Write the structure tokens for this entry.
Amino acid sequence: MNQYDVKDYSLWTALVTPFNQRGRVDYDALAQLLDDQAAAGNGILMLGSTGEGLALSLNEQKKIIRFVCQHQPDAPIMVAVGGYNLESQLEWIEFCNQLPIHSYLLAAPLYAKPGPKGQEQWFRGLLERSKFPCMVYNVPSRSGVELCPQALANLTDEAMFWSVKEASGSVIKFKEFKDAIPNIAIYSGDDALLPEFSLLGASGLVSVCANAWPKATNLYVEQCLSTPQDMEFNLWKSAIEPLFSVANPVPLKVLMHQKEQIAHPQLRLPLTHSELSEFAPLMQADNTIKQWFSQQ
């Protein structure tokens, strides 16, 4: 297994899962996407919400992770853990523990909306079973519940608790986490908010945009973290808005298809690329980011 220190990576790309026209996983495209991210120096997150992980069957998830491990991209691999049933998630972790991966993204249980005690017990169960460093994911827009800073503070005795992905879109929430768990790395889960979060001590970004612009996003993160007071990055904030005009990863897959990074824009229902009929804003975003990158 290639040895990577997850703490060395300030950018993790929440990778899309490419499908062919029949809706099956396009492994040739996946191999190219893995290579592109590795060449840009990015860590790779598999089977998150951008990767439509919950729309895949368990057999598909296992096949994808085995494929990624056999492909051996020159990058650390993080695997998403998310669902409702704790025993199923523990079984998934046990499966992945045997593979040459490097980290987990642990999501709050969907739909249940647990309180602080339930959150603490849920994550402790996952952390205790994990063989690799874990990033805990706060994303109330998808899970239905905000994580409690004190619940996470109570988990800092767990050796595998490495970081938090903060995706509530709130600077206030970021500050609360930073105060409650000062020794835990906190990553922005929102591409547009990294400049603001970097002022508060963010360790990096878990990115949607890096799928379309692997190298440019890597540079964006590097510059945000090295000069967090630089407000030039309002350019990024306005440029990437079209990527979130409807549910992620619908616009992203349409853009990647237009850029010929993937052969088809297919998603798994209930998401569909037919939600988006106007491509001009996406292409303008692409032009803006490419122009910015060429001028650096």
The domain at 6-227 is CATH 3.20.20.70 (TIM Barrel).
